[in-house]
């Protein structure tokens, strides 16, 4: 249960007479921070609560965080990380600019030595913040890169690599090199209909090629962290899942191009398409987002 749901439930129960077991349950929930910490390997782990998956590296001499979800979730994460280390945050790295990955950055203001992101990640975050008049609630990258960036941090090497336009035009893969764990951000939605942000430079054609490059660049032992997954599908994925995501995008491209050739409108394709043919394991809400993005790219 996340903290918001806990508070909602508490409010509902506050006006009623609580049974002993209800009081015990609420006390247990209140005593435990929201969200789930999971150690993977080499002092690298993930945090899940609300928003895109967070990755972290924590030792007595180092603390690194990749993505931050939202302010409340970022504070919950920091509370739990303080049980592992009192070290100042060395690095905060963003995989891309979307709010469910960067809105929690502000919780790190004054606590982190360096904030890192692709140059387009920062530009997109600034643009979105200005549009929403929320610049005061943001913490932007103070260190940006075009293609590659790396830094050693107390027993681990962090590297970031930009492969090209995909989910946005500023997605980077963040690699914990010694642990061999790579955070993909939203380059993979594991069996869940993806958001293809054409307003931020997304490209289905380029995304397909980016996934091919990632499979070649990282070895078979690399554990990949994806930002989101469908029901009953894992956040930690492998090369086969990269191939499956590439297949989804390719089948989406083929399907929409075929319907456009038939003369169907975007609205007709959305109405008639419940799954993408030959990629039926991609489910959940949001198939219309994929179709709309494909029409932007191929319906000209």
Helix-strand blueprint:
Layout: H1 3-14, H2 20-31, E1 36-41, E2 44-48, E3 54-59, E4 62-66, H3 71-81, E5 89-93, H4 99-102, E6 112-118, H5 119-132, E7 143-145, E8 148-153, E9 156-162, E10 172-176, E11 181-183, E12 189-190, H6 204-217, E13 223-225, E14 228-229, E15 236-237, H7 239-262, H8 266-272, H9 287-298
Parallel strand pairs: 4-5, 5-6, 6-7, 11-13, 12-14
Antiparallel strand pairs: 1-2, 2-3, 3-4, 8-9, 9-10, 10-11, 13-15
What would the principal axes of the Cα set say about the shape? globular
Order of helices and strands: HHEEEEHEHEHEEEEEEHEEEHHH
- Ends apart, CA distance between termini: 45 Å
Share of helix, binned: 25-40%
Low-confidence stretches: 1-32
Quick one: how many beta strands? 15
Number of helices: 9
**Radius of gyration, Cα only, in angstroms?**
20 Å
Largest sheet strand order:
1-2-3-4-5-6-7
Report the structural category: alpha/beta
Q: If you average the pLDDT, what whole number results?
A: 91
Major sheet details = 7 strands, mixed
The proportion of strand residues reads 15-25%
